[in-house]
Amino acid sequence: MCIYYSQADPFGSSSNSCNSMFLVRPKRSKIRVRRLTMTRRIRCDGEMELKNLKLYLENRSIIVENEKLRKRALLLHEENQALMCELQKKLVSHVHHDRCK
């Protein structure tokens, strides 16, 4: 026996059978909603995966650039120390030379 046997069909037919559009339609819409939800989820997952890949590649390029800058900074620091050492030697020899006069 149909649960909705006493209700009128909203689509205009006079049939009160359980196979009417009134009873079948909610199942179809649930399937459509699930399919749409799944499609959106797959699309969002794909978009997130692409965004994640782009961010990963950007991070890798930043890391590589950072390593280059770190090496350059180390070379500049070593050059600065060498120049400071030469300057100190010149100052010491200049002070020592002035004392001897």
Task: Determine the mean pLDDT.
Answer: 79
Please estimate the helix content.
over 70%
Reported for the largest beta sheet, the result is: none
Q: What class do helices, strands and sheet pairing give?
A: mainly alpha
Tell me the distance between the termini.
125 Å
Strand content: under 5%
Categorize the overall geometry: rod-shaped
Low-confidence stretches: none
Taken in chain order, the helices and strands follow as: H
Report on the structure:
It is a single chain. With 101 residues, the protein is mainly α. 78% of the residues lie in helices and 0% in strands. It has one helix and no strands. It is rod-shaped and about 105 Å long. The protein starts with 20 loop residues before the first helix and ends with a helix. The mean pLDDT is 79.
List the helices and strands and how they pair.
Elements: H1 21-99
InterPro entries: ZPR (IPR039312)
Give descriptors for this structure:
101 residues, mainly alpha, 1 helix, 78% helix, ZPR
